[in-house]
């Protein structure tokens, strides 16, 4: 066996130790020099070098574009000895408006798309710095930041940029290092600066305080984010999930675009979602049968904006399809926030939002102080020269004589310093002085500039001596950036968690008018859109109807009310008033099948608004009273309807041929009044009805007659058209009766005596061919206004007191003038 040679530079080491140390060195190199951003300027080294190089090349926002290849070559040759693809890809991302909330580079040419298309080769594209980037680099030449040697020691590069705004939060970042990763979303510039300014004034502010300013991420692609509480927790811990959703809306058929059914329109998608991949995933789900109800998917996006159309089948429920899209595609996605950044340029650290802003502000404090020192030195140096020039001008003849007697420049400088006590710097400035400066006007300029410099020196010295003045300056500069570059938030923040489909915290509680057509279209509008008119007028258009569709229900509610929808088949559904889409006065509204799981040929016949916040209503609500067209009535405990499933509940078991028509809330001690289309009425005590379960059928409320009358339908049978609940013994208030041809009247309730239920009742109105049958009857409890809507969508709003008080056996007065083919459809009081 050969003898082992003794090498002087060879050391014996354990392999595990060597690998451990080498890997740790490699890991720290990746962490510090490549993958993680610096909390101070929010940039990774490659991004910082790109911006610094472009600044050196003079590629400001007002300059001409230069080839991207030229920029990449400069970066590689001077500062970043890595692959050209890595540098170009990094520069491309800085220019992509769908990745950067405020792009730092302006690109000309193909810089990629939200569809996942890659940018064109660097030899084809051009770039320059954006306007906001100038604030990132401002004053870098004034020794505001520390510098270091480049990779070969031939140049100097900044360790960090001055950064006039918190870039780390504003544009966010994504980075994968060794054993750690960072994922910081972009935010709204104005919100981040407002939080920074608040933190300057309130050093002990909490994350909760700052969250009042920074609502949440503000993605360049818009969309929605959910759950303010979860967002605040993520900000407090420096990590956590944030649920994102695209902007999708269910719309009606659009003949202009040849869309014959309801469709879903997507105009915004979650951040960092590939649009093409999203559409492909939707198509896969359709072909696999997991996304039923979809007829066609089209991408109509163009340079004006994103637009994905998902046509639905005729029997499809839009909300169900949309919920599946949220569940099975990236139309809903979770952003996993992880605010990991380099603290002090070397230490990786997970920071909460306050710590990020604190470290940025500390950096900015250092930048302003260093800049002030630099400006002070420059001002002092210039003042020193100006003092020498002034002194020379005061002794100009002697100075000129001294210079003339000197052998050369060096001798003249020495003589000036010896004879007049000038410094070498002042002597050089005097020798460089032109003869034109001897004029009186030029002398005055020197004196004015000297006075100005002395004033500036005093201000800069005061700034350096006072921390509070430095912070004032920082706030001013931050607010200047906000004023110039801030814009509106693009991403809407919902207070509740995704999946609850509510936005109650964002919707003001206010009165609203809800209208529903027999064809199943519903909308809500502000009551103020129906102006008060005189009784007997034609009214205004309140809703555009199509074909044979007519307005069937018209009611007032609060936007926060719980709405119970009772159908002709005896089922009940629930939604919230603000979930009904707001519309214009003449708008048709949205199809009800988008909100309720209705079966074929199932129609809503009664809508009950319930005030969830009203303790008085909750105390009085003991029973739900239901009446049918066939004269059957039933009451069921109110508690049975507290939790109505999305798929609906059985509210009443109907006999064959009968239809549920009216529902009201009673206290258990009230009276009930029922009216028929033919003008008969019966008032009886609620105690005559025993409580029954939801699946029971009920008992007879009124006996209907079959004899002929102008009010009868084509079948020749009278039906119930109204049911209302009034407090026991209530006699002073009025009963408002409205008839099909626009006639109506008020009758004092005392004229309707209490009877036993089940009888044929007494006459409530004189029904003739002129008045038409009774359409609605309501108990009036206060001075209200009446809104009447016709089958063709005509609406009139008038004062209740303008309607005459008349006896039971009268025809009433004209409330609304209708066309021959039009009839009153529904009535609401406001």
TrEMBL record:
Subcellular location(s) of the protein: Cytoplasm
Domain Topo IIA-type catalytic: 36-506
Short name of one Pfam family: DNA_gyraseA_C
Main enzyme class: isomerase
Enzyme Commission designation: 5.6.2.2
GO molecular function per UniProt: ATP binding; DNA binding; DNA negative supercoiling activity
Gene Ontology annotations for the cellular component aspect, listed alphabetically: chromosome; cytoplasm; DNA topoisomerase type II (double strand cut, ATP-hydrolyzing) complex
Coiled-coil zones: 439-470
Sequence motif GyrA-box, residues: 533-539
Swiss-Prot/TrEMBL GO biological process terms: DNA topological change; DNA-templated DNA replication
Domain of life: Bacteria
Catalytic activity from the UniProt record: ATP-dependent breakage, passage and rejoining of double-stranded DNA
Active site: 124 (o-(5'-phospho-dna)-tyrosine intermediate)
Keywords: ATP-binding, Coiled coil, Cytoplasm, DNA-binding, Isomerase, Nucleotide-binding, Topoisomerase
Gene3D superfamilies: 3.30.1360.40, DNA gyrase/topoisomerase IV, subunit A, C-terminal, Topoisomerase II, domain 5, Topoisomerase, domain 3
UniProt xrefs under NCBIfam families: gyrA, PRK05560.1, PRK05561.1
Subunit record text: Heterotetramer composed of ParC and ParE.
Main function: A type II topoisomerase that negatively supercoils closed circular double-stranded (ds) DNA in an ATP-dependent manner to modulate DNA topology and maintain chromosomes in an underwound state. Negative supercoiling favors strand separation, and DNA replication, transcription, recombination and repair, all of which involve strand separation. Also able to catalyze the interconversion of other topological isomers of dsDNA rings, including catenanes and knotted rings. Type II topoisomerases break and join 2 DNA strands simultaneously in an ATP-dependent manner.
Family, per entry: Belongs to the type II topoisomerase GyrA/ParC subunit family.
HAMAP family: GyrA
Extra remark beyond the main annotation: Few gyrases are as efficient as E.coli at forming negative supercoils. Not all organisms have 2 type II topoisomerases; in organisms with a single type II topoisomerase this enzyme also has to decatenate newly replicated chromosomes.
Protein name according to UniProt: DNA gyrase subunit A
Organism field: Candidatus Spechtbacteria bacterium RIFCSPLOWO2_01_FULL_46_10
